[in-house]
Amino acid sequence: MDSSPWRAGQGRLARHNQMVLLARGEGDLADFARDVLAGRAKPEDLLYRSYLSEKTLEAAHAEVDEWHALPEDEQQAAIAGAEAGTKAEIAALAALDLAEPDPVVEDDDHDFGGGVMKSSW
Q1: Listed residue (77, 68, 95) closest to 11, CA to CA
Q2: CA separation for the pair 56, 17 (Å, rounded)
Q3: Other CB atoms closer than 10 Å to residue 18's CB: what's the count?
Q4: Which of 10, 11, 93, 118 could form a disulfide with 6 if both were Cys (CB 3.0 to 4.6 A apart)?
Q5: How many Cβ atoms from other residues are within 10 Å of residue 33's Cβ?
Q6: Cβ neighbours for 60, distance < 8 A, ≥ 6 positions apart
Q7: Alpha carbon separation from 43 to 62, 72, 111, 112 (Å, rounded)
Q8: What is the pLDDT of residues 8-25, one digit of tens each?
Q9: How far apart are CA 79 and CA 65, in angstroms?
Q10: How much is the pTM?
């Protein structure tokens, strides 16, 4: 890959949608995503600042250890498919419609005494 597909228009939309999905959750990654969406942080800040809890970092380190434990041929196969996988992930994220639905207004049959007031006029 010459330049990151995340920097193109579709990639930026995909990253935004990714942050919206993360922000809907709970925990340190959700907090970080909300900071990104609010303009208080940039996605790359995750690499340079301590946003993540020890528990999240331990999980990330475990994933790295699993990668290193893979046989060389499996690592090479994953590397060979990474560009296509990244492009597919970007396309899927960019295609999401994450517009907030209109809030549901519950029907309230109670008229708060409107009929009584009207009859007294």
Answers
A1: 95
A2: 21
A3: 20
A4: 11
A5: 23
A6: 52
A7: 22, 31, 49, 50
A8: 899 999 999 999 999 999
A9: 16
A10: 0.70
